[in-house]
Amino acid sequence: MSETKDSIIIKGRTVYPGKVEGEALVSKMPLMGWGNVNVKQGFTVERDHPLYEVPLKDKILVFPYVRGSGGFVMYGHTKRYGVNPLAMLCTEPISYGIFAAMTMKQPMMTDFDIDPVKIIETGDYIIVNADEGFIEIVKNV
Amino acid sequence: MKLTNSEKAMLEGQEGEAVQKAMEMLVRYGEALGAEKFIDTTNVGGYMIANLEQYKRFNSFDGAFSEMCMDSDVTVKLPPVKVSSCQFETSMDPEYYKLAGKSDEEYELYKSNIDYLANLGIQVMCTCTPYQVGNVPVKGEHCAWMESSAVVYINSVLGARTNCEGRESTTSAMLTGKIPYWGLHITENRYGTHLIHVDEQPITMEDWGLLGYYVGKTVLDKIPVLDGIKKTPTRDMLKHFGAAAASAGGIELYHIPGITSDANTVEEAFGGRTPIEELNYGVNEKLNAYNLLNSIGDNENVDFIMLGCPHYSIEQVWDLCKKLEGKHVKEGVSFWVFTPQSIKDLANRNGFQKTIEDFGGLLMKDCCPAIGRFKPRGSSVMATDSAKQGHYLPNITGIEAWYGSVDDCVEAAVTGKWGGKFN
């Protein structure tokens, strides 16, 4: 990790390459796929989830890991309707989580130096460089 | 990843373009996981069903599945599968597609899709429970399966080894016989993490569903070890428990020492390590699980009864039939029971199908409402004996749901009223 007055850079492992930047949307609760995703509107429909019906479009989605039945790939299918997140950053990798990034061909990273869920808050500005394996966090102050 | 010579040959295209694309997909996937090598598998369970929208983008199954199931930019012609492979549960029962609100066009596509899979040599079991209809992996067998309820069953009860795979990895595994050696394929990753002292003994199917829901909500994607179970559960109870745990959390493996496959003692289940956390399951935890599952129910006027998630075994069908004799479903209530085709054939031979139909219900195959994204036309309140279906169907279709025992569900079918109580 390196830190300047304005930003923090942390390294991670690339799951799917690419470079994007945008505003963070953080889910401290793991995300569930399949029947819990509204693919056309691009949000989770899992009851009691903090991100229930919160649009993922153009966000840098940050979450600890994927849970529940397989089918997390449905988050990737949101791209077909133009309501996909720009990138996904997660604490731990999981088998079927990866297909979402592959399907939408958007960057995904995991295994960071520091847990992204702990350091990033919703509204922070994130520069994702999955080509070179790091993210830059500009805190929303 | 380190590849063997035969894997390199597949990657170079020596076994044809489809196998090459499958291998490319598996290498990308394996590298993304952080896997170092592949393991051979001869038991793959996947999902290759295209809906109308997906099919029409390509106008061929090869096109649809090249993209959706192999992440390939180009269409390749899929050859017959290399290793034994089966199809999980699908989107409709071809006999009752109209009741599920599917069009004639969707039905025709479904029939061609099943023929397409059969021609590739994929066993069209069309069930979430292949282990109920002959595919029973042995302990230590490396599999590549989808469907969380099946994954948790074969990992835990049978001691087979699989991660919860996706369409992309399973289709590619069917064509190559390879899957990344990662996660639950590796002994080191199969030890327990959380110790749960079960004080409130699960006796009935409903109890096992509630325990599963609690464990899933509490442990999430880790590996629970249940200590204190005094009565050996039936296969169906473990099926029910695992499905609830996998859908409420993300449980892919659990241990009940002395009962499930990997461990005979608590120490063995933890591989000599200390549990991350110890929890107690008592009557309060059971009540919380019950209330959480029933928090989706408000209206007590039930118009849909859904049984068979995961698909019913022949024992469950038989047990249900004993409860139906001399009764009849209330007008306006749909009573649907889901099972694999081969169990339905047996139920038919045994007269069970007739008993269900005389009651006013239907025995359906191949699908379930959650996978097929349907419910009976006009229905708004469901009663089910499945914690999994009760968890998912409201999110998918907006229906309300009540969870209880099979007796509660039969009673609701007869009266049209939900009268289930916690006990």
UniProtKB/TrEMBL annotation, chain B:
Q: Where is the Phosphomevalonate dehydratase large subunit-like domain?
A: 1-411
Instruction: Tell me which domain of life the UniProt entry assigns to the organism this sequence originates from.
Output: Bacteria
Pfam families tied to this protein: AcnX (PF04412)
Q: Which GO terms describe its molecular function?
A: lyase activity
Leader sequence residues: none
Provide the alphabetized UniProt keywords: Iron, Lyase
Q: What is this protein called?
A: DUF521 domain-containing protein
Q: What is the lineage of its organism?
A: Bacteria, Bacillati, Bacillota, Clostridia, Eubacteriales
